[in-house]
TrEMBL record, chain A:
The keyword Transmembrane helix applies. The keyword Transmembrane helix applies. The chain crosses the membrane at residues 31-52, 59-79, 85-106. This is Uncharacterized protein. The lineage of its organism: Archaea, Methanobacteriati, Methanobacteriota, Stenosarchaea group, Halobacteria. Keywords: Membrane, Transmembrane, Transmembrane helix. Residues 113-134 are annotated as: Disordered.
From TrEMBL, chain B:
Its cofactor is Zn(2+). It comes from Natrialba hulunbeirensis JCM 10989. Residues 267-289 are annotated as: Disordered. Gene3D superfamilies: Zn peptidases. Residues 67-160 form the Succinylglutamate desuccinylase/Aspartoacylase catalytic domain. The keyword Amino-acid biosynthesis does not apply. Pfam families: AstE_AspA_cat (PF24827). Keywords: Hydrolase, Metal-binding, Zinc. InterPro entries: AstE_AspA_cat. This is Succinylglutamate desuccinylase/aspartoacylase. GO terms for molecular function: hydrolase activity, acting on ester bonds; metal ion binding.
C-alpha cells in the first residue's frame, strides 16, 4: 500500500488533530486512501467474477455476496418488480461507502501513529548542554 | 516492510481463494454416473402426446427389467426454464435399475419454442385444479398421460428468479413436496452436493406443499396419491450450467430415494425410508412455480 506518508507532510498531524478541520482532512484523504481502494476491490472484484460465472465464486466473494444479496432482499421487499441487475448501482455505491469507512479508520490510525512518533522523538531529544547529570 | 506486508496480503488472499476452490462441493459425479450407467437391460419407448396438434410433444418411457416404482419427470412446463428442459432431456438417456422412468422434457412445447413462460393458454402450471378437469387442451392431454401411467412419484423441474424466503416474490432453491416425500433429506443432499459454504443463501429449503392448488404436482399428489416434488432452482447469481446441474442432481436423488436407481444416498429406500415431518408451507402461487 502506498500513499502520502504523514511524515512527509510536516505540520499535518497537528492539523489532523485540530477538531472538525482535522476530521475533514482525514475524510478527504480516505476517499482515495490505499485502504479504501483495497477494500473496494476486495468487495467487488471476487463477487463480480462469480456474477459472470458461478464457478468463479470463491470465499473472497462472500462479503460482496452478502451485501448484494441482502440489498436485493430489502429492495425486493420494498419494490418487488425491479430486476436484480438494477441492484448493481446501489451495490457499487454501498461497497465504496463501506470502503471509505475503512479508509477513514486507516487514515485516522496513521495520523495518530504519526503524531505519537512525533511526541516520542521530542521525548528522545538530547538534554540541553549544561543540564546533564554527568 | 511494505513489500513484506503486500506479499503477506497477496498470499493470504490467494490462499483463501485456493482453499475455497478446493473445498467447493464437486457435485455428485458418482450418483450421475450411476444414473447414466444403470441397468443394461432396459427398454425405451417414445410416444407422442397430443399428436397432430400444435402441442404435440414427446414422452420417453424407460423400463427396467426389475420391478419397481414408476417415476414421472416433467421439464418445460414453463418454456423459458431451460435448466429443467435440459436436465429432463438428459434423463431420457439414463438407465433405471428398477421400475419405470417416464420423462416429458418439453411439456408445453409451444412455450418452449417461444422461450416464454406460458404457451397458447397461458401458464400451464395453473391448469390442474385438484378434483376438477384440467382447464386447457394441453393440460388435459398431459393429465391423461399421468393417469395412464399412475406414477408413484412425480417430479416437476423449474427455475425461479430469486430465493424462497429471502426474496418475497420468488421461490428459488426450494424443493416443494407432498407430505409423504423425502423433501428434507433430498434438499440437504442437494445442498451438500451443489452449494458451497460461501453461498449460504443458496442452501436448499424443503417446503411441504398443500395438495389443493392448481399445480400439476399438487394434482398428482391429491388425486393419484403420488409422492410429488416440485423443484425450483434460481437464476439469482447462478448461471445456466449450474442450474442445469442442480436439476440433474435433484432428478437423480429422487430416483435413488425411491429405488429406481440402485445407489445408496442414505435417503428413502436406500436409507432410513422415513418420509419427512415438516411444517406445512403454502406453495408459491405466483412468480415461478
Amino acid at each position: 500500500m502506498s500513499g502520502a506518508s504523514p511524515e512527509t507532510e510536516p505540520g499535518r498531524e497537528s492539523e489532523l488533530s485540530a477538531g472538525p478541520a482535522g476530521w475533514l482532512e482525514i475524510g478527504r484523504r480516505a476517499l482515495t486512501s490505499p485502504a479504501t481502494v483495497a477494500t473496494t476491490i476486495l468487495l467487488i472484484v471476487p463477487f463480480a467474477l462469480g456474477w459472470f460465472r458461478t464457478e468463479l465464486f470463491s470465499p473472497l466473494a462472500l462479503p460482496g455476496y452478502v451485501i448484494y444479496s441482502v440489498g436485493t432482499a430489502i429492495g425486493n421487499a420494498i419494490a418487488p418488480r425491479f430486476e436484480f441487475w438494477v441492484y448493481w448501482v446501489p451495490f457499487l455505491g454501498g461497497c465504496y461507502g463501506i470502503a471509505v469507512s475503512v479508509g477513514t479508520g486507516y487514515e485516522w490510525v496513521r495520523a495518530r501513529r504519526a503524531a505519537g512518533e512525533d511526541g516520542t522523538e521530542t521525548d528522545r531529544s538530547p538534554d540541553p548542554p549544561g543540564e546533564s547529570d554527568d | 516492510m511494505r513489500r513484506r506486508s503486500a506479499l503477506a496480503a497477496v498470499t493470504t488472499l490467494a490462499g483463501t481463494a485456493i482453499a475455497g476452490v478446493v473445498s467447493r462441493p464437486g457435485g455428485n459425479d458418482r450418483l450421475l454416473t450411476a444414473a447414466q450407467e444403470g441397468s443394461d437391460d432396459i427398454t425405451t419407448e417414445t410416444t407422442q402426446l397430443l399428436p397432430d396438434t400444435v402441442h404435440e410433444t414427446t414422452l420417453y418411457e424407460l423400463t427396467a427389467s426389475d420391478p419397481g416404482p414408476t417415476v414421472m419427470v416433467f421439464g418445460g412446463i414453463h418454456g423459458d426454464e431451460r435448466n429443467g428442459i435440459e436436465a429432463a432431456h438428459d434423463a431420457t438417456e439414463w438407465a433405471p435399475d428398477a421400475g419405470q422412468l417416464v420423462v416429458v422434457p418439453e411439456t408445453d412445447r409451444v412455450a418452449v419454442e417461444n422461450d416464454e413462460r406460458g404457451g397458447i393458454d397461458g401458464d400451464l402450471n395453473r391448469h390442474f385444479p385438484a378434483g376438477e378437469e384440467p382447464t386447457s387442451d394441453l393440460a388435459r392431454g398431459i393429465w391423461d398421460a399421468v393417469e395412464r401411467y399412475d406414477p408413484d412419484v412425480v417430479l416437476d423441474l423449474h427455475r425461479s428468479l430469486g430465493i424462497y424466503g429471502f426474496h418475497r416474490e420468488y421461490v428459488g432453491q426450494t424443493l416443494f413436496h407432498s407430505a409423504d416425500a423425502h423433501g428434507r433429506a433430498i434438499a440437504d443432499a442437494l445442498t451438500a452436493d451443489a452449494v458451497p459454504w460461501y453461498l449460504p443463501f443458496h442452501r436448499f429449503t424443503p417446503a411441504e406443499s398443500t395438495a389443493g392448488g392448481p399445480l400439476l404436482f399438487q394434482k398428482a399428489a391429491a388425486e393419484l396419491d403420488a409422492t410429488a416434488y416440485l423443484f425450483e432452482t434460481t437464476a439469482f447469481l447462478l448461471d445456466h450450467a449450474t442450474m442445469t446441474e442442480q436439476s440433474r442432481l435433484v432428478t437423480a436423488h429422487v430416483l435413488a430415494a425411491h429405488g429406481v436407481l440402485e445407489y445408496d444416498t442414505g435417503i428413502g429406500v436406500a436409507g432410513t425410508g422415513e418420509p419427512d415431518q415438516e411444517s406445512e408451507t403454502e406453495p408459491d402461487g405466483g412468480t415461478s412455480a
